[in-house]
């Protein structure tokens, strides 16, 4: 499956933090001396290249932004990312270790190295495993930290979840959330907690209230996107793709929001019922509540996931309890 496409976004024109970045020189000799590239290509985008580098025997990732001919919107996106990562500090949020200009046309960000993202793990197949509960729990820990500190990510999806480890006892999963270019600071934007209808994120992961313009709390929208991400991990690839297409079709319809929400509830109910033997579907049902008054908060989801009675693939899970105060349909 191909990577998903971001929505259009509105960006601030401010890039004050970028103006203050130290330069390592046009020849890049100092860059190569400080962070020797080890030859591994990690990834790339329209204006970025990500390479592995080493320092003192430890591997890091260096994200190189090629700013020549980069649109102002993209420059502002880099600034947004740097501003958030400089102030966030949590084991589930990717660390920004260093930032500098490689030359007049490149901006470099050094971060911890991760071998893959959640999208890669899902694409590898193999179905939902017991160890995947640890991935879901760690994502919830990261989102809870963000929301507790007044930050909304606004683009939670599997491509923005980095993973190390293989889930074994000797090499447990370690998860980091990345990409804060769409994030918003509620302390700096107090009005954004009510009726924030800015369509930001990735199609198929938008909360329905963003599409229907019914007003939203961006924290609740984060939790819907988290629910879609957990569903992508938990159910079969084919079933998720069918759900994804149906959701996009429903959200593209021009019927009143009441009709759209009724159709959406029917589609969600069908998926939940098909996989109802898995306790994880209980938390998915709570996260994908169309009514945001009943949708789980990050703290709610975290408490449920930390309950050992709920984190099992055993057929007999009578002790598992629903985290949701309202039925899905």
Automatic annotation (TrEMBL):
A GO cellular-component term linked to this record: nucleus
- Species assigned in the record: Octactis speculum
Q: List this protein's GO terms for biological process.
A: mitotic DNA damage checkpoint signaling
Q: Which residues form the Protein kinase domain?
A: 36-313
What's one Pfam family here?
Answer: Pkinase
**What InterPro entries has UniProt attached to this entry?**
Kinase-like_dom_sf, Prot_kinase_dom
Q: What is this protein called?
A: Protein kinase domain-containing protein
Q: Where does the sequence pass through the membrane? A: none
In the record, what terms sit under GO molecular function? Answer: ATP binding; protein serine/threonine kinase activity
The residues forming the signal peptide are none
